[in-house]
Every structure is written in C-alpha cells, then in structure tokens.
Amino acid sequence: MATKKQASAAKKNIKKAQAKWKGMTHRQHALVQPEGRMRKKPGTTGKGKFYRIEIRPKGEFKTFRIQDVGKKGGLERLAGKRTSGSWDTVSWLVSKKDAHVSSGHLVIDDTKARSVLKNIRGPVTHVKGDVFHAYPRKNVPESAKPTLKQKRAWAANIKKAQKTNRGK
Fold this sequence. Notes:
Elements: H1 4-22, H2 26-32, E1 50-54, E2 63-69, E3 75-81, E4 87-95, E5 99-102, E6 105-108, H3 111-116, E7 121-128, E8 131-135, H4 148-166
Parallel strand pairs: 1-8
Antiparallel strand pairs: 1-4, 2-3, 3-4, 5-6, 7-8
C-alpha cells in the first residue's frame, strides 16, 4: 500500500510526463519508442528496385500518382497534384536494371529512359541511398511561345505529313 506522499509524487510525475509528451512532435514520439529507430525512410537504404530522381519538393503537392512510362517496371513517373489543381512531375523512378551509379552521378543506360529524362536539367547528383536530385526543365512563359524549337518541330511534322499524303 502506497503512502499519501508516494501517491501525490506519482500524480505529479504522471502530469509531468503527460506535459512533456504533449509538447513533442510526431517524429519525437516515434524516436522515443524502442522500435521507432528501426524503420528507415524508403530509398535511403539502397536496397530497392529503383533509383529515385527528385525534381521538385514533395511539400508542393497534396496528392500523388505513379505512372508507368514505356515497359512495365522500367521507368516510372511520380506525378503530384498541387492545391491549385495542376499536375506536375515530382520525381522519376528509374529501374536499377536500366541505370548505374558512377562517381556520385546516375548514368542511365536504357536509350528510351534517357530520351524521356531529357526534361531533366543539370546533373543527376547523389543524395542518399537510392535517392538522387536534379532540376526540372525551364519554365517558358506563354508570351515567349511558340519557341524556335516548337516552330522547327511543327515544320518537320508538316513536311512529314506532306510526304505521306503524296504517296496516297
């Protein structure tokens, strides 16, 4: 049987512990737990099937979807929806079968994956584990369109269409 002094001390200790617990973040709660230190974030261990090339910060988006590009399991696009409703690429997932790491940079071996990833600007640099970082393509304002590249592509498409129509 506990004395009155012990009971009051226990109540004070419980109130102190509750106050401390309420002042902690979700991450601090997890780290305090004995099993909280065991879980690693996806992609940081280097044991996955894909290399992740982060292009934009995850915090800009509220919803995410993964899309297969080309053959299944080769190249995947992680698309994110902003609060405004517009969709954009958050990151690319490249199969480890189609790429390798060389001196801290990701080298993409597959020709189709390399052509899709032309939209990435700058070097694909290593961050941690299977995670890499790059920059998105430059944003071209509507006032500067059509660009010279777009004009050339249109002209080439028109020429191609005219050649196929002559043969009919």
